[in-house]
Amino acid sequence: MKTIYSAIQPSGVMTLGNYIGAVDNWHQMQADPNNKCIFALADLHTITVRQDPAKFHENAMSFYALLLALGLDPKKSIVYFQSHVQQHAYLAWLLNCYTMVGEMNRMTQFKDKSQKHSDNINMGLMDYPVLMAADILLYNAHEVPVGVDQLQHIEIARDIAERVNGIYGDIFTVPKGVLKKVGAKIMSLQDPLAKMSKSDPNPKSFISVLDDDAVIMKKFKSAVTDSETEIRFDPENKPGVSNLLTILSVATKKSVDDLVKEFDGLMYGHLKVRTGEAVCEMLKPMKQEYNHLIKDEAYLLECARENAARAEAIAQETLDRFKKAIGYVMI
Ligand code: TYM
Q1: By the number of CB atoms within 10 A of the CB, which of 22, 43, 80, 182 ranks highest?
Q2: For the CA of 149, the nearest atom of ligand 1
Q3: Are residues 259 and 317 in the same domain?
Q4: Does ligand 1 come within 6 angstroms of the Cβ of 136?
Q5: pTM to 2 decimal places
Q6: Tens-digit pLDDT profile for residues 182-230
């Protein structure tokens, strides 16, 4: 059996980038009977940026419902809130003592976020990758399916695991980041050189998986492409068109090569409309399920409780193993 672990922050909206780059991959991995899958809402990470309490609460419930609506099965996999399993924060503290300040200072995301939130460069923002390492290492994960932007954090989790194992022997499984073949970095619809991001101030740049069909169509129709007319896959020279082809490929399950042939002689406008329609179609069953689930708070909380208990059992075992190795008195 292989253990798969990943997580998403319940901040802002879930974007098409999150879905294509990560959650869709989790769903596919869950279908493999050789995988034991564990997926978290990384709600401890979320407060590294200041959150409005009511909105944060609403987002967390909404993201949990979305994960289930997108096909994560709380009976088959473990789907839980990070904040419900105390061992994450505990292990993060221990790992802090095996992580160098210099390593954290070099993290690209820390540098970016420090610039964006210069009025609130809190310790959590800097320590974020250590908490993420704790998430992954608690569950002895072999593979961590993520988008490209999280690879650096997984590298540091590997480094920390190897460092601890080097001191105490076999404590942690050393995880490997895995990327989707197509869609590991979905780009902004307004600036195809930048990643599609939920924190982008321009809402036209990203698709929320809960956007109405009309909004989705409008955003795709206004997607930035280039001044040529040829539809071909060339991320370097034609990032906008290539991004649309990538999204369309995932939404239709057709290869990019086949799509390029299909669009031979057609215009960018056709590609934009066809991509918008395919995305609406792809998201439709999830939206129906979501609308049903979000009204059933009792069910969602019951799932969250039960799944947190299953997660905790695994996490405690790992934490005890590490504490014992460090030399703590166990009672
Ligand atoms: P987050 O919440 O920013 O994003 C969740 C997942 O979505 C991927 N992603 C994308 N993939 C492709 N194209 C995009 N435009 C795009 N935008 C986001 C991210 O790479 C990620 O896989 N720190 C993490 C959450 C986390 C975590 C973990 C992940 C906490 N603990 C342990 C893995 C393992 C984060 O903020 O992801």
Answers
A1: 80
A2: 20
A3: no
A4: yes
A5: 0.97
A6: 999 999 999 999 999 998 999 999 999 999 999 999 999 999 999 899 9
